[in-house]
Hints:
Elements: H1 14-23, H2 27-32, E1 36-39, E2 49-52, E3 57-60, H3 65-81, H4 90-106, H5 110-113, H6 115-128, H7 133-139, H8 141-159
Parallel strand pairs: 1-3
Antiparallel strand pairs: 2-3
Helix pairs in contact: 3-4, 3-8, 4-6, 4-8
Amino acid sequence: MGSSKRTANRSRSIRNVTEWLKSLPLREVAESWGLKVEAFNGGDGGRLGFFSGGRGMIGLGVENLATWCHELIHAADARNIGGLKGGQHIDQETVAELGAAVLLTILDRPVDADLGGCWTYLQGYAASSKREVVDVCVELLDRTCKAVDLILTTAEQLAAPAVAA
């Protein structure tokens, strides 16, 4: 995932980064799926985040909720479809980017949803595939909604009080 919109706030103290990681919305969802959430030095201008099902982790190289939700959507999508292909593919990136924008909008974080940045990101993938952004989004809307739903349903289940048997 690469977008200049997410390059701010790359260098922070370890303590601040640890506190930020602990404060991520829906982090408990990732943890309930057995995923570690860790930071890495994204200051080299490379990727800003990653999801690795094989390593059981989400890595964040930038303090940005859109990046966090993008990677969390990748994790949900992987659970729903039985894993992701290695590398960056238009279907996976569209689901993750569009899903992150939807998820952050649902969480009442419209600024963090960064709809303009989302559109630009999706345009890049669509253009490289000689497709229209809207066509790709419509094609993947059901898959995107299923990923968002899995995250929200899991969060609701985790928040529900335990019922005594």
